[in-house]
Specification:
This protein has about 575 residues and is of the alpha/beta class. Helix content is about 30%, strand content about 20%. It has two domains: about 400 residues, Rossmann fold (3-Layer(aba) Sandwich); about 100 residues, GMP Synthetase, Chain A, domain 3 (2-Layer Sandwich), CATH 3.30.300. The termini are far apart. It binds adenosine-5'-monophosphate-propyl ester. Adenosine-5'-monophosphate-propyl ester (PRX) binds next to helix 11, strand 14, strand 21 and strand 22.
Protein backbone atom coordinates (compact mmCIF):
# COMPACT_ATOMS: atom_id res chain seq x y z
CA UNK A 1 0.00 0.00 0.00
CA UNK A 2 1.40 3.40 -0.90
CA UNK A 3 1.64 6.20 1.62
CA UNK A 4 -1.10 8.02 -0.23
CA UNK A 5 -3.48 5.08 -0.15
CA UNK A 6 -3.00 4.69 3.56
CA UNK A 7 -3.91 8.31 4.00
CA UNK A 8 -7.15 7.74 2.08
CA UNK A 9 -7.98 4.65 4.06
CA UNK A 10 -7.84 6.49 7.33
CA UNK A 11 -9.80 9.48 6.27
CA UNK A 12 -13.53 9.60 5.73
CA UNK A 13 -13.25 11.71 2.64
CA UNK A 14 -11.40 10.63 -0.49
CA UNK A 15 -9.60 13.76 -1.61
CA UNK A 16 -8.10 14.04 -5.04
CA UNK A 17 -4.89 15.63 -6.07
CA UNK A 18 -5.92 17.35 -9.30
CA UNK A 19 -2.30 17.47 -10.46
CA UNK A 20 -2.17 13.66 -10.24
CA UNK A 21 -5.22 13.05 -12.44
CA UNK A 22 -4.20 11.62 -15.80
CA UNK A 23 -6.60 13.89 -17.67
CA UNK A 24 -8.17 17.17 -16.69
CA UNK A 25 -11.85 16.58 -15.87
CA UNK A 26 -14.37 17.77 -18.47
CA UNK A 27 -16.37 19.43 -15.72
CA UNK A 28 -14.44 22.02 -13.79
CA UNK A 29 -15.85 24.68 -11.50
CA UNK A 30 -19.02 22.89 -10.37
CA UNK A 31 -20.21 25.61 -8.02
CA UNK A 32 -19.97 28.29 -10.69
CA UNK A 33 -21.70 26.13 -13.28
CA UNK A 34 -24.60 25.51 -10.92
CA UNK A 35 -25.26 29.25 -11.10
CA UNK A 36 -24.69 29.85 -14.79
CA UNK A 37 -25.57 26.67 -16.68
CA UNK A 38 -28.67 26.61 -18.89
CA UNK A 39 -29.95 23.55 -20.74
CA UNK A 40 -29.83 25.50 -23.99
CA UNK A 41 -26.01 25.48 -23.60
CA UNK A 42 -26.04 21.68 -23.83
CA UNK A 43 -28.02 21.70 -27.10
CA UNK A 44 -24.75 22.55 -28.81
CA UNK A 45 -23.26 19.18 -27.92
CA UNK A 46 -25.45 17.45 -30.51
CA UNK A 47 -26.32 18.03 -34.16
CA UNK A 48 -29.74 19.21 -35.22
CA UNK A 49 -31.52 18.91 -38.55
CA UNK A 50 -33.17 21.96 -40.14
CA UNK A 51 -36.34 23.09 -38.42
CA UNK A 52 -35.21 21.99 -34.97
CA UNK A 53 -35.48 18.27 -35.78
CA UNK A 54 -33.15 15.69 -34.32
CA UNK A 55 -32.40 11.97 -34.37
CA UNK A 56 -30.66 10.43 -31.40
CA UNK A 57 -29.08 7.57 -33.41
CA UNK A 58 -27.75 10.06 -35.97
CA UNK A 59 -25.91 11.76 -33.12
CA UNK A 60 -24.70 8.49 -31.67
CA UNK A 61 -23.26 7.04 -34.89
CA UNK A 62 -23.81 8.95 -38.14
CA UNK A 63 -22.28 12.29 -37.26
CA UNK A 64 -19.01 10.55 -36.37
CA UNK A 65 -19.12 8.22 -39.37
CA UNK A 66 -19.65 11.20 -41.67
CA UNK A 67 -16.90 13.20 -39.98
CA UNK A 68 -13.39 12.89 -38.66
CA UNK A 69 -14.03 9.85 -36.50
CA UNK A 70 -15.19 7.63 -39.36
CA UNK A 71 -12.24 5.23 -39.04
CA UNK A 72 -12.08 5.40 -35.27
CA UNK A 73 -12.93 2.14 -33.46
CA UNK A 74 -16.40 2.56 -32.01
CA UNK A 75 -16.92 -0.94 -30.64
CA UNK A 76 -14.60 -3.62 -29.41
CA UNK A 77 -16.93 -6.56 -29.14
CA UNK A 78 -15.52 -9.41 -27.10
CA UNK A 79 -17.66 -12.53 -27.17
CA UNK A 80 -16.48 -13.34 -23.67
CA UNK A 81 -14.32 -16.20 -24.89
CA UNK A 82 -11.47 -13.91 -25.88
CA UNK A 83 -12.46 -13.43 -29.50
CA UNK A 84 -12.60 -9.67 -29.99
CA UNK A 85 -13.85 -7.95 -33.13
CA UNK A 86 -13.42 -4.26 -33.78
CA UNK A 87 -15.91 -2.05 -35.61
CA UNK A 88 -15.37 1.51 -36.73
CA UNK A 89 -18.02 4.22 -36.61
CA UNK A 90 -18.31 3.87 -40.40
CA UNK A 91 -19.02 0.15 -40.09
CA UNK A 92 -21.67 0.73 -37.42
CA UNK A 93 -23.14 3.46 -39.63
CA UNK A 94 -23.49 1.06 -42.55
CA UNK A 95 -24.85 -1.75 -40.40
CA UNK A 96 -27.44 0.44 -38.70
CA UNK A 97 -28.39 1.89 -42.10
CA UNK A 98 -28.98 -1.61 -43.40
CA UNK A 99 -31.16 -2.45 -40.45
CA UNK A 100 -33.19 0.76 -40.83
CA UNK A 101 -33.75 -0.27 -44.49
CA UNK A 102 -34.81 -3.77 -43.43
CA UNK A 103 -37.48 -2.26 -41.17
CA UNK A 104 -38.59 0.04 -43.99
CA UNK A 105 -38.98 -2.93 -46.32
CA UNK A 106 -41.14 -4.68 -43.74
CA UNK A 107 -43.40 -1.64 -43.55
CA UNK A 108 -42.50 -0.67 -39.98
CA UNK A 109 -43.72 2.88 -39.49
CA UNK A 110 -42.65 5.94 -37.54
CA UNK A 111 -43.04 5.38 -33.78
CA UNK A 112 -43.96 1.70 -34.18
CA UNK A 113 -42.51 -0.34 -31.32
CA UNK A 114 -39.61 -2.62 -32.23
CA UNK A 115 -38.27 -4.96 -29.55
CA UNK A 116 -34.71 -6.16 -29.35
CA UNK A 117 -34.49 -9.50 -27.56
CA UNK A 118 -30.91 -10.60 -28.03
CA UNK A 119 -27.83 -11.58 -26.09
CA UNK A 120 -25.04 -9.03 -26.09
CA UNK A 121 -23.93 -9.22 -29.70
CA UNK A 122 -23.22 -6.82 -32.53
CA UNK A 123 -26.79 -7.36 -33.76
CA UNK A 124 -28.14 -6.09 -30.45
CA UNK A 125 -26.52 -2.66 -30.88
CA UNK A 126 -27.26 -2.53 -34.61
CA UNK A 127 -30.95 -3.34 -34.38
CA UNK A 128 -31.48 -1.02 -31.41
CA UNK A 129 -29.85 1.97 -33.11
CA UNK A 130 -31.13 1.09 -36.59
CA UNK A 131 -34.70 1.12 -35.27
CA UNK A 132 -34.22 4.55 -33.69
CA UNK A 133 -32.65 5.86 -36.88
CA UNK A 134 -35.73 4.71 -38.80
CA UNK A 135 -38.00 6.64 -36.43
CA UNK A 136 -39.35 3.58 -34.60
CA UNK A 137 -39.42 3.31 -30.81
CA UNK A 138 -36.76 0.76 -29.88
CA UNK A 139 -37.24 -1.37 -26.80
CA UNK A 140 -34.46 -3.66 -25.64
CA UNK A 141 -35.45 -6.60 -23.51
CA UNK A 142 -33.21 -8.48 -21.07
CA UNK A 143 -32.34 -11.89 -22.57
CA UNK A 144 -33.05 -13.66 -19.27
CA UNK A 145 -36.75 -12.82 -19.50
CA UNK A 146 -39.23 -15.69 -19.61
CA UNK A 147 -42.58 -15.94 -21.43
CA UNK A 148 -44.67 -13.98 -18.90
CA UNK A 149 -42.21 -11.07 -18.88
CA UNK A 150 -42.09 -11.07 -22.68
CA UNK A 151 -45.86 -11.18 -23.06
CA UNK A 152 -46.46 -8.33 -20.59
CA UNK A 153 -44.11 -6.03 -22.51
CA UNK A 154 -45.04 -6.84 -26.08
CA UNK A 155 -48.75 -6.82 -25.37
CA UNK A 156 -48.80 -3.55 -23.47
CA UNK A 157 -46.69 -1.73 -26.05
CA UNK A 158 -48.41 -3.27 -29.09
CA UNK A 159 -45.00 -4.18 -30.52
CA UNK A 160 -45.06 -4.88 -34.28
CA UNK A 161 -41.60 -6.42 -34.58
CA UNK A 162 -39.08 -8.28 -32.48
CA UNK A 163 -35.46 -9.04 -33.28
CA UNK A 164 -34.28 -12.17 -31.55
CA UNK A 165 -32.14 -15.26 -32.07
CA UNK A 166 -32.91 -18.90 -32.79
CA UNK A 167 -32.73 -19.84 -29.08
CA UNK A 168 -34.64 -16.95 -27.52
CA UNK A 169 -37.35 -17.10 -30.19
CA UNK A 170 -38.66 -20.29 -28.56
CA UNK A 171 -39.83 -18.24 -25.60
CA UNK A 172 -41.54 -15.78 -27.92
CA UNK A 173 -43.47 -18.66 -29.50
CA UNK A 174 -44.99 -19.71 -26.20
CA UNK A 175 -46.85 -16.38 -25.99
CA UNK A 176 -47.11 -15.37 -29.66
CA UNK A 177 -50.80 -16.32 -29.91
CA UNK A 178 -51.59 -13.68 -27.31
CA UNK A 179 -49.82 -10.90 -29.23
CA UNK A 180 -52.15 -9.76 -32.00
CA UNK A 181 -49.98 -6.77 -33.03
CA UNK A 182 -46.75 -8.70 -33.49
CA UNK A 183 -46.22 -8.99 -37.25
CA UNK A 184 -42.51 -9.59 -37.73
CA UNK A 185 -40.16 -11.97 -35.97
CA UNK A 186 -36.64 -11.26 -37.19
CA UNK A 187 -34.16 -13.97 -36.28
CA UNK A 188 -30.42 -13.41 -36.13
CA UNK A 189 -29.11 -16.94 -36.57
CA UNK A 190 -30.86 -19.86 -38.19
CA UNK A 191 -34.26 -18.49 -39.14
CA UNK A 192 -37.16 -20.81 -39.84
CA UNK A 193 -38.68 -19.42 -43.04
CA UNK A 194 -41.52 -21.99 -42.95
CA UNK A 195 -42.70 -20.49 -39.66
CA UNK A 196 -42.66 -17.02 -41.22
CA UNK A 197 -39.49 -15.90 -39.48
CA UNK A 198 -37.42 -13.22 -41.18
CA UNK A 199 -33.76 -14.04 -41.66
CA UNK A 200 -31.75 -11.15 -40.21
CA UNK A 201 -28.56 -12.00 -42.07
CA UNK A 202 -30.19 -12.52 -45.46
CA UNK A 203 -32.20 -9.30 -45.14
CA UNK A 204 -29.15 -7.31 -44.04
CA UNK A 205 -27.05 -8.71 -46.88
CA UNK A 206 -29.49 -7.48 -49.48
CA UNK A 207 -30.26 -4.13 -47.83
CA UNK A 208 -28.58 -0.90 -48.87
CA UNK A 209 -25.96 0.54 -46.53
CA UNK A 210 -27.23 4.04 -47.28
CA UNK A 211 -30.01 5.59 -45.20
CA UNK A 212 -30.87 9.10 -44.13
CA UNK A 213 -31.74 9.15 -40.42
CA UNK A 214 -35.37 10.25 -40.05
CA UNK A 215 -35.56 13.82 -38.70
CA UNK A 216 -37.73 13.57 -35.59
CA UNK A 217 -39.46 16.11 -33.46
CA UNK A 218 -37.35 16.33 -30.26
CA UNK A 219 -40.41 15.20 -28.31
CA UNK A 220 -40.98 12.07 -30.40
CA UNK A 221 -39.82 8.87 -28.76
CA UNK A 222 -36.47 7.15 -29.19
CA UNK A 223 -36.74 4.19 -26.81
CA UNK A 224 -38.89 2.68 -24.12
CA UNK A 225 -38.01 0.37 -21.26
CA UNK A 226 -40.29 -1.53 -18.97
CA UNK A 227 -39.58 -1.21 -15.29
CA UNK A 228 -41.19 -2.33 -12.05
CA UNK A 229 -43.15 -0.40 -9.48
CA UNK A 230 -44.92 -1.44 -6.29
CA UNK A 231 -48.20 -2.33 -7.87
CA UNK A 232 -49.32 -3.68 -11.20
CA UNK A 233 -47.42 -5.05 -14.14
CA UNK A 234 -44.18 -3.49 -15.38
CA UNK A 235 -44.76 -0.07 -16.92
CA UNK A 236 -43.37 1.28 -20.16
CA UNK A 237 -41.09 4.25 -19.47
CA UNK A 238 -40.85 6.27 -22.67
CA UNK A 239 -37.94 8.54 -23.61
CA UNK A 240 -37.81 11.30 -26.21
CA UNK A 241 -35.09 12.00 -28.80
CA UNK A 242 -34.34 15.23 -26.93
CA UNK A 243 -32.89 13.08 -24.12
CA UNK A 244 -29.71 12.58 -26.14
CA UNK A 245 -28.68 16.11 -25.17
CA UNK A 246 -28.46 15.21 -21.50
CA UNK A 247 -27.23 11.68 -22.17
CA UNK A 248 -24.31 13.24 -24.02
CA UNK A 249 -23.67 15.96 -21.46
CA UNK A 250 -23.72 13.60 -18.47
CA UNK A 251 -21.33 11.21 -20.22
CA UNK A 252 -18.92 14.12 -20.66
CA UNK A 253 -19.34 15.66 -17.25
CA UNK A 254 -19.76 12.64 -15.01
CA UNK A 255 -18.14 9.68 -16.76
CA UNK A 256 -15.58 12.14 -18.03
CA UNK A 257 -15.15 10.56 -21.47
CA UNK A 258 -12.20 11.98 -23.42
CA UNK A 259 -11.20 11.27 -27.02
CA UNK A 260 -8.56 8.69 -26.08
CA UNK A 261 -10.65 6.76 -23.54
CA UNK A 262 -11.70 3.14 -23.86
CA UNK A 263 -15.02 2.95 -22.08
CA UNK A 264 -16.69 -0.12 -20.60
CA UNK A 265 -20.20 -0.24 -19.15
CA UNK A 266 -20.92 -3.70 -17.79
CA UNK A 267 -24.73 -3.44 -17.92
CA UNK A 268 -26.77 -5.31 -20.52
CA UNK A 269 -28.71 -3.28 -23.07
CA UNK A 270 -31.89 -4.68 -21.52
CA UNK A 271 -31.46 -2.20 -18.66
CA UNK A 272 -31.38 1.56 -18.80
CA UNK A 273 -27.71 1.72 -17.78
CA UNK A 274 -26.77 -0.41 -20.79
CA UNK A 275 -28.89 1.72 -23.12
CA UNK A 276 -27.75 5.12 -21.95
CA UNK A 277 -24.14 4.50 -20.92
CA UNK A 278 -23.37 1.25 -22.74
CA UNK A 279 -24.54 2.63 -26.06
CA UNK A 280 -26.00 6.14 -26.49
CA UNK A 281 -23.91 8.50 -24.33
CA UNK A 282 -20.35 7.27 -24.93
CA UNK A 283 -20.84 6.92 -28.68
CA UNK A 284 -22.49 10.30 -28.89
CA UNK A 285 -19.25 11.60 -27.33
CA UNK A 286 -17.27 9.71 -29.99
CA UNK A 287 -15.68 7.24 -27.56
CA UNK A 288 -14.48 3.70 -28.15
CA UNK A 289 -16.62 1.26 -26.18
CA UNK A 290 -16.08 -2.31 -25.13
CA UNK A 291 -18.99 -4.74 -25.24
CA UNK A 292 -18.36 -7.95 -23.36
CA UNK A 293 -20.53 -11.00 -24.01
CA UNK A 294 -20.90 -13.99 -21.71
CA UNK A 295 -21.65 -14.15 -18.03
CA UNK A 296 -20.09 -12.41 -15.03
CA UNK A 297 -16.69 -13.91 -14.34
CA UNK A 298 -14.11 -12.00 -12.25
CA UNK A 299 -11.10 -13.44 -14.08
CA UNK A 300 -12.55 -12.53 -17.47
CA UNK A 301 -13.49 -9.07 -16.28
CA UNK A 302 -9.97 -8.25 -15.10
CA UNK A 303 -8.51 -9.78 -18.23
CA UNK A 304 -10.81 -7.68 -20.41
CA UNK A 305 -9.77 -4.48 -18.63
CA UNK A 306 -6.14 -5.40 -19.15
CA UNK A 307 -6.37 -6.66 -22.74
CA UNK A 308 -8.62 -3.92 -24.10
CA UNK A 309 -6.81 -1.20 -22.14
CA UNK A 310 -10.07 -0.01 -20.59
CA UNK A 311 -9.72 3.42 -18.99
CA UNK A 312 -13.27 4.14 -17.77
CA UNK A 313 -15.33 1.44 -16.12
CA UNK A 314 -19.02 1.78 -15.16
CA UNK A 315 -20.48 -1.06 -13.12
CA UNK A 316 -22.79 -1.96 -10.23
CA UNK A 317 -22.26 -2.39 -6.47
CA UNK A 318 -23.21 -6.08 -6.57
CA UNK A 319 -20.45 -6.70 -9.08
CA UNK A 320 -18.04 -4.72 -6.90
CA UNK A 321 -18.98 -6.82 -3.88
CA UNK A 322 -18.57 -10.03 -5.85
CA UNK A 323 -15.14 -8.93 -7.05
CA UNK A 324 -14.19 -8.01 -3.49
CA UNK A 325 -15.30 -11.45 -2.30
CA UNK A 326 -12.97 -13.08 -4.85
CA UNK A 327 -10.00 -11.48 -3.12
CA UNK A 328 -7.16 -9.22 -4.16
CA UNK A 329 -4.84 -11.83 -5.69
CA UNK A 330 -6.78 -11.98 -8.93
CA UNK A 331 -6.60 -8.26 -9.76
CA UNK A 332 -2.92 -8.26 -8.71
CA UNK A 333 -2.22 -10.79 -11.47
CA UNK A 334 -3.42 -8.36 -14.11
CA UNK A 335 -2.07 -5.09 -15.39
CA UNK A 336 -4.92 -2.72 -14.55
CA UNK A 337 -2.95 0.51 -14.73
CA UNK A 338 -4.94 1.47 -17.83
CA UNK A 339 -7.92 2.32 -15.59
CA UNK A 340 -8.29 5.99 -14.77
CA UNK A 341 -11.89 6.39 -13.58
CA UNK A 342 -14.40 4.01 -11.98
CA UNK A 343 -18.15 4.50 -11.53
CA UNK A 344 -21.05 2.55 -10.07
CA UNK A 345 -24.85 2.70 -10.13
CA UNK A 346 -28.01 0.85 -9.20
CA UNK A 347 -27.96 0.54 -5.41
CA UNK A 348 -26.01 1.96 -2.53
CA UNK A 349 -22.27 1.57 -2.97
CA UNK A 350 -20.78 0.49 0.33
CA UNK A 351 -17.93 2.71 1.58
CA UNK A 352 -15.81 -0.48 1.71
CA UNK A 353 -16.22 -0.75 -2.06
CA UNK A 354 -14.85 2.75 -2.57
CA UNK A 355 -11.90 2.05 -0.29
CA UNK A 356 -11.20 -1.40 -1.72
CA UNK A 357 -10.92 0.12 -5.19
CA UNK A 358 -8.35 2.63 -3.93
CA UNK A 359 -6.20 -0.22 -2.79
CA UNK A 360 -6.66 -2.61 -5.69
CA UNK A 361 -6.84 -0.19 -8.60
CA UNK A 362 -3.87 1.96 -7.71
CA UNK A 363 -5.65 4.79 -5.95
CA UNK A 364 -8.71 4.97 -8.12
CA UNK A 365 -11.92 5.09 -6.11
CA UNK A 366 -15.41 4.21 -7.35
CA UNK A 367 -17.62 7.21 -7.99
CA UNK A 368 -21.21 6.47 -7.02
CA UNK A 369 -23.84 7.79 -9.44
CA UNK A 370 -27.59 7.95 -8.86
CA UNK A 371 -30.40 7.84 -11.40
CA UNK A 372 -33.40 5.79 -12.55
CA UNK A 373 -34.98 4.32 -15.66
CA UNK A 374 -37.39 7.26 -15.51
CA UNK A 375 -34.73 9.97 -15.23
CA UNK A 376 -33.01 8.89 -18.45
CA UNK A 377 -29.54 9.89 -17.27
CA UNK A 378 -27.41 10.45 -14.17
CA UNK A 379 -28.84 13.25 -11.99
CA UNK A 380 -26.84 12.99 -8.77
CA UNK A 381 -23.22 11.93 -8.64
CA UNK A 382 -19.72 12.14 -7.29
CA UNK A 383 -17.91 14.25 -9.87
CA UNK A 384 -14.33 13.63 -10.99
CA UNK A 385 -13.17 17.02 -9.67
CA UNK A 386 -14.79 16.60 -6.25
CA UNK A 387 -13.76 14.83 -3.07
CA UNK A 388 -15.72 11.61 -2.59
CA UNK A 389 -17.59 10.93 0.59
CA UNK A 390 -17.74 7.13 0.61
CA UNK A 391 -21.37 6.03 0.98
CA UNK A 392 -22.76 9.25 -0.51
CA UNK A 393 -24.36 9.56 -3.95
CA UNK A 394 -22.74 12.98 -4.41
CA UNK A 395 -24.34 16.16 -5.74
CA UNK A 396 -26.93 17.11 -8.34
CA UNK A 397 -25.79 17.95 -11.87
CA UNK A 398 -25.79 21.61 -12.84
CA UNK A 399 -29.24 22.12 -14.39
CA UNK A 400 -30.84 19.67 -11.92
CA UNK A 401 -32.54 20.78 -8.75
CA UNK A 402 -32.83 17.89 -6.31
CA UNK A 403 -34.22 18.15 -2.78
CA UNK A 404 -35.42 16.17 0.21
CA UNK A 405 -39.01 16.96 1.23
CA UNK A 406 -41.64 16.08 3.82
CA UNK A 407 -45.09 14.63 3.12
CA UNK A 408 -46.42 17.99 1.93
CA UNK A 409 -43.55 18.63 -0.45
CA UNK A 410 -41.76 21.14 1.82
CA UNK A 411 -37.99 21.06 1.67
CA UNK A 412 -36.46 19.62 4.83
CA UNK A 413 -33.44 21.02 6.65
CA UNK A 414 -30.05 19.43 6.12
CA UNK A 415 -29.62 16.08 7.78
CA UNK A 416 -33.33 15.20 7.90
CA UNK A 417 -34.63 12.18 6.05
CA UNK A 418 -37.44 12.53 3.56
CA UNK A 419 -38.52 11.88 -0.02
CA UNK A 420 -35.95 12.47 -2.71
CA UNK A 421 -37.52 14.73 -5.33
CA UNK A 422 -36.41 16.56 -8.47
CA UNK A 423 -37.81 19.67 -10.16
CA UNK A 424 -39.37 18.22 -13.31
CA UNK A 425 -38.50 19.23 -16.84
CA UNK A 426 -34.90 18.06 -17.43
CA UNK A 427 -34.28 17.00 -21.08
CA UNK A 428 -33.90 13.25 -20.47
CA UNK A 429 -36.90 12.91 -18.17
CA UNK A 430 -39.37 10.23 -19.25
CA UNK A 431 -42.20 11.68 -21.32
CA UNK A 432 -44.90 9.20 -20.41
CA UNK A 433 -45.73 5.83 -19.00
CA UNK A 434 -46.92 4.05 -22.13
CA UNK A 435 -50.67 4.58 -22.43
CA UNK A 436 -51.03 5.03 -18.69
CA UNK A 437 -51.42 8.66 -17.77
CA UNK A 438 -52.59 8.01 -14.20
CA UNK A 439 -49.39 6.07 -13.49
CA UNK A 440 -47.30 8.89 -14.94
CA UNK A 441 -49.16 11.43 -12.83
CA UNK A 442 -48.42 9.46 -9.67
CA UNK A 443 -44.81 10.64 -9.99
CA UNK A 444 -45.74 14.32 -9.95
CA UNK A 445 -46.97 16.24 -6.91
CA UNK A 446 -46.56 19.70 -5.40
CA UNK A 447 -44.32 20.76 -8.29
CA UNK A 448 -41.90 17.85 -7.74
CA UNK A 449 -41.01 14.60 -9.48
CA UNK A 450 -41.04 11.93 -6.75
CA UNK A 451 -38.26 9.37 -7.20
CA UNK A 452 -39.70 6.81 -4.74
CA UNK A 453 -36.39 6.94 -2.83
CA UNK A 454 -35.76 8.47 0.57
CA UNK A 455 -32.58 10.39 1.24
CA UNK A 456 -30.91 13.13 3.26
CA UNK A 457 -28.52 15.96 2.43
CA UNK A 458 -25.45 16.74 4.54
CA UNK A 459 -23.86 20.06 5.43
CA UNK A 460 -21.76 20.06 2.26
CA UNK A 461 -24.72 19.42 -0.03
CA UNK A 462 -23.92 15.72 -0.58
CA UNK A 463 -26.93 13.41 -0.97
CA UNK A 464 -27.11 10.20 1.05
CA UNK A 465 -29.41 7.36 0.06
CA UNK A 466 -31.66 6.08 2.83
CA UNK A 467 -34.01 3.57 1.16
CA UNK A 468 -37.06 3.08 -1.00
CA UNK A 469 -40.30 4.72 0.03
CA UNK A 470 -42.21 1.86 -1.61
CA UNK A 471 -42.03 -1.93 -1.93
CA UNK A 472 -39.77 -2.05 -5.01
CA UNK A 473 -37.01 -4.62 -4.56
CA UNK A 474 -33.46 -4.11 -5.75
CA UNK A 475 -31.75 -7.46 -6.08
CA UNK A 476 -28.23 -7.50 -7.51
CA UNK A 477 -29.05 -4.04 -8.81
CA UNK A 478 -32.07 -5.23 -10.81
CA UNK A 479 -35.40 -3.65 -10.09
CA UNK A 480 -38.15 -6.17 -9.35
CA UNK A 481 -41.77 -5.46 -8.46
CA UNK A 482 -43.23 -7.66 -5.71
CA UNK A 483 -46.54 -7.77 -7.55
CA UNK A 484 -44.97 -9.42 -10.61
CA UNK A 485 -43.38 -12.12 -8.47
CA UNK A 486 -46.61 -12.64 -6.50
CA UNK A 487 -48.57 -12.93 -9.77
CA UNK A 488 -46.17 -15.55 -11.11
CA UNK A 489 -46.26 -17.45 -7.80
CA UNK A 490 -50.01 -17.77 -7.61
CA UNK A 491 -50.07 -19.35 -11.04
CA UNK A 492 -48.39 -22.35 -9.43
CA UNK A 493 -51.01 -24.97 -8.57
CA UNK A 494 -49.74 -25.42 -5.02
CA UNK A 495 -50.13 -21.73 -4.13
CA UNK A 496 -53.23 -19.86 -3.10
CA UNK A 497 -51.69 -16.61 -1.97
CA UNK A 498 -48.26 -15.04 -1.88
CA UNK A 499 -46.65 -11.96 -0.37
CA UNK A 500 -43.20 -10.91 -1.56
CA UNK A 501 -40.62 -8.63 0.06
CA UNK A 502 -36.96 -7.68 -0.30
CA UNK A 503 -34.74 -9.01 2.48
CA UNK A 504 -31.37 -7.32 3.04
CA UNK A 505 -28.44 -9.38 1.80
CA UNK A 506 -24.70 -8.73 2.09
CA UNK A 507 -23.85 -9.59 -1.50
CA UNK A 508 -26.98 -8.85 -3.48
CA UNK A 509 -28.24 -5.78 -1.63
CA UNK A 510 -31.58 -7.56 -1.24
CA UNK A 511 -32.90 -10.99 -2.03
CA UNK A 512 -36.49 -11.79 -2.90
CA UNK A 513 -38.36 -13.54 -0.10
CA UNK A 514 -41.83 -15.04 -0.56
CA UNK A 515 -44.44 -15.91 2.05
CA UNK A 516 -46.75 -18.54 0.67
CA UNK A 517 -50.13 -19.95 1.62
CA UNK A 518 -50.48 -23.44 0.18
CA UNK A 519 -53.50 -24.86 -1.62
CA UNK A 520 -55.24 -27.36 0.68
CA UNK A 521 -53.84 -30.82 0.07
CA UNK A 522 -50.27 -29.64 -0.56
CA UNK A 523 -47.57 -30.18 2.05
CA UNK A 524 -44.55 -28.00 2.56
CA UNK A 525 -41.26 -29.55 1.55
CA UNK A 526 -37.88 -28.60 0.16
CA UNK A 527 -38.78 -30.21 -3.17
CA UNK A 528 -41.85 -28.04 -3.41
CA UNK A 529 -39.76 -24.94 -2.66
CA UNK A 530 -37.35 -25.85 -5.45
CA UNK A 531 -40.20 -26.53 -7.83
CA UNK A 532 -41.75 -23.14 -7.05
CA UNK A 533 -38.43 -21.39 -7.60
CA UNK A 534 -37.95 -23.11 -10.94
CA UNK A 535 -41.49 -22.22 -11.94
CA UNK A 536 -40.99 -18.49 -11.30
CA UNK A 537 -37.57 -18.47 -12.96
CA UNK A 538 -38.91 -20.02 -16.13
CA UNK A 539 -41.83 -17.59 -16.37
CA UNK A 540 -40.36 -14.29 -15.23
CA UNK A 541 -36.57 -14.19 -15.30
CA UNK A 542 -33.55 -15.88 -13.79
CA UNK A 543 -33.02 -13.10 -11.26
CA UNK A 544 -36.64 -12.51 -10.27
CA UNK A 545 -37.37 -15.66 -8.26
CA UNK A 546 -37.65 -15.95 -4.47
CA UNK A 547 -34.37 -17.24 -3.04
CA UNK A 548 -36.15 -17.71 0.30
CA UNK A 549 -39.62 -19.12 0.81
CA UNK A 550 -41.63 -19.38 4.04
CA UNK A 551 -44.86 -21.31 4.14
CA UNK A 552 -47.49 -19.55 6.27
CA UNK A 553 -51.09 -20.16 7.31
CA UNK A 554 -52.31 -16.67 6.42
CA UNK A 555 -50.96 -13.37 5.13
CA UNK A 556 -51.56 -10.03 6.89
CA UNK A 557 -54.08 -8.03 4.85
CA UNK A 558 -55.86 -4.73 4.99
CA UNK A 559 -59.64 -4.78 5.36
CA UNK A 560 -59.85 -4.18 1.64
CA UNK A 561 -57.82 -7.36 1.05
CA UNK A 562 -54.42 -5.88 0.13
CA UNK A 563 -51.45 -7.87 1.34
CA UNK A 564 -49.47 -5.78 3.84
CA UNK A 565 -45.92 -6.32 2.70
CA UNK A 566 -44.80 -3.71 5.20
CA UNK A 567 -45.85 -6.06 8.02
CA UNK A 568 -44.22 -9.07 6.42
CA UNK A 569 -40.99 -7.12 6.18
CA UNK A 570 -41.22 -5.78 9.72
CA UNK A 571 -41.77 -9.29 11.11
CA UNK A 572 -38.98 -10.76 9.03
CA UNK A 573 -36.51 -8.13 10.16
CA UNK A 574 -37.73 -7.91 13.75
CA UNK A 575 -38.77 -4.28 13.32
CA UNK A 576 -41.70 -2.50 14.97
CA UNK A 577 -44.89 -3.24 13.03
CA UNK A 578 -46.14 0.35 13.17
CA UNK A 579 -49.74 1.31 12.50
CA UNK A 580 -51.87 -1.80 12.02
CA UNK A 581 -55.27 -0.12 12.34
CA UNK A 582 -56.22 -0.96 8.76
CA UNK A 583 -55.41 -4.63 9.31
CA UNK A 584 -58.07 -7.22 8.58
CA UNK A 585 -59.67 -8.02 11.91
O1 LIG B 1 -33.62 3.05 -5.49
C1 LIG B 1 -32.74 3.70 -6.37
C2 LIG B 1 -31.73 2.72 -6.90
O2 LIG B 1 -32.22 2.23 -8.11
C3 LIG B 1 -33.50 2.83 -8.40
C4 LIG B 1 -33.66 2.97 -9.88
O3 LIG B 1 -33.62 1.72 -10.46
P1 LIG B 1 -33.56 1.55 -12.03
O4 LIG B 1 -34.68 2.31 -12.64
O5 LIG B 1 -33.51 0.09 -12.29
O6 LIG B 1 -32.24 2.23 -12.48
C5 LIG B 1 -31.01 1.79 -12.01
C6 LIG B 1 -29.87 2.33 -12.83
C7 LIG B 1 -30.00 3.67 -13.36
C8 LIG B 1 -33.45 4.12 -7.65
O7 LIG B 1 -34.74 4.64 -7.44
N1 LIG B 1 -30.44 3.38 -7.14
C9 LIG B 1 -29.92 3.78 -8.32
N2 LIG B 1 -28.70 4.33 -8.14
C10 LIG B 1 -28.46 4.30 -6.81
C11 LIG B 1 -29.57 3.70 -6.18
N3 LIG B 1 -29.65 3.56 -4.84
C12 LIG B 1 -28.60 3.98 -4.11
N4 LIG B 1 -27.51 4.55 -4.65
C13 LIG B 1 -27.38 4.73 -5.98
N5 LIG B 1 -26.29 5.28 -6.50
Amino acid sequence: MTEKTREFMHSDIVRKDMAQLRLEPNLKGYEGLRETFKWADADKLVEWFPGGKINSAYNVIDRHALGERKDKIALIYDDGEGDAQKYTFKQLYEETNRFANVLGRLGVKRQDRVFVFLQRTLEQYVSFLGAIKAGAIASPMFPAFGPDAIKDRLLDSGAVAIVTDSELVKRVYTVKDQLPDLKHIIVAGDANADAGEIDYRAEMASASDRFEAVPMDPEEFQFMLYTSGTTGKPKGVVHAHKGIVQQTLSTRWVLDVHEEDIFWCTADLGWVTGVVYGCLGPWSCGATQVGLGGRFDPERWYRSIQDHRISIWYTAPTAVRMLMAKGDDLPAKHDLTCLRALYSVGEPLNPEGVRWALEVFDNKPFHDTWWQTETGSILITNFPEMPIKPGSMGKALPGIYAAVVDEDGNELPQGEEGSLVIRPGWPSMMRQIWKNEPKFNEYLRDGWYYTGDTAKIDEDGYFWYVGRADDVIKTSGERVGPFEVESALIEHEAIVEAGVIGKPDQLRGSIIKAFIVLTPGYKESDELKKDIQKFVKSRLAGHAYPREIDFVETLPKTRSGKIMRRLLRAKELGLPTGDTSTLEG
